[in-house]
Design a protein that fits this description.
The complex is a heterodimer of chains A (114) and B (113).
Chain A (H helix, E strand, L loop, with lengths): L3 E4 L2 E4 L5 E7 L5 E8 L3 E10 L2 E4 L7 E2 L9 E3 L8 E8 L9 E2 L3 E5 L1
Chain B lengths: L2 E5 L2 E5 L4 E8 L3 E9 L6 E6 L5 E4 L2 E5 L3 E6 L8 E9 L9 E2 L3 E6 L1
Parallel strand pairs in B: 2-11
Antiparallel strand pairs in B: 1-3, 3-8, 4-5, 4-9, 6-7, 7-8, 9-10, 9-11
The chains are: A mainly beta (114), B mainly beta (113).
Chain lengths: 114, 113
């Protein structure tokens, strides 16, 4: 089954404690991205990756890092989380073969920073 | 900068009461307009892609249409299981971040039996 898998689904952490949210896809997609979803603001792109070792900032990259060492994995790293990073996070992947392909989204990670 | 505005923010319908959701967009060269459905606590699920003005697509009780400035998602004779948040997103022709989707705020639809 084609899917994007995120872990963990829920996470409560304290300010300043480094954390990583993992994302893995099994569709051999080149393009992967991270979004955060906040009430009234919709989905906003944090970082994206066009392929292995190619990453770039989205609209709201401050406080986040990513890496793309393998095609299937695209972890999101918060080096020093702050309360304003409390949000619902989604990882998504898309193929490049047809440029208008739809994005497949993970189940989401609800992060609370206290 | 690409912009997507969805209206209304929320919609309450009786079962069988048809209605339409609006997605207005501003983009420099539309590559594609996407509709997604999102259930509470879950990731968005793809519904349709529209590429050019005049195009229409249907899936069960849903029909999406596209003009040069907006898209509509028509829900015909909705059922309670159609209750969800419907998201609209656009992708522009742009070399940098070519696959980026810009999302609207969504329309929360509640269908009562």
């Amino acid at each position: 089954e084609a899917q994007v898998t995120q872990n963990p689904r829920y996470l409560i952490t304290v300010t300043g404690k480094k954390l990583t949210v993992t994302c893995s896809q099994n569709m051999n997609h080149e393009y992967m991205s991270w979004y955060r979803q906040d009430p009234g603001l919709g989905l906003r792109q944090i970082y994206y990756s066009m392929n292995v070792e190619v990453t770039d900032k989205g609209d709201v990259p401050e406080g986040y890092k990513v890496s793309r060492k393998e095609k299937r994995n695209f972890p999101l790293i918060l080096e020093s989380p702050s309360p304003n990073q409390t949000s619902l996070y989604f990882c998504a992947s898309r193929g490049q073969g047809h440029l208008n392909t739809e994005a497949f989204f993970g189940q989401g990670t609800r992060l609370t920073v206290v | 900068e690409d912009q997507v505005t969805q209206s209304p923010e929320a919609l309450r319908l009786q079962e069988g009461e048809s209605s339409s959701l609006n997605c207005s967009y501003t983009v420099s060269g539309l590559r594609g307009l996407f509709w997604y459905r999102q259930d509470p606590g879950k990731g968005p699920e793809f519904l349709f892609t529209l590429y050019s003005a005049g195009e229409e697509k249907e899936k069960e009780r849903l029909k999406a249409t596209l003009t040069k400035k907006e898209s509509f998602l028509h829900i015909t004779a909705p059922k309670p299981e159609d209750s969800a948040t419907y998201l609209c997103a656009v992708q522009a022709y742009r070399a940098a971040a070519g696959n980026k989707l810009t999302f609207g705020g969504g329309t929360r639809v509640l269908v009562k039996p």
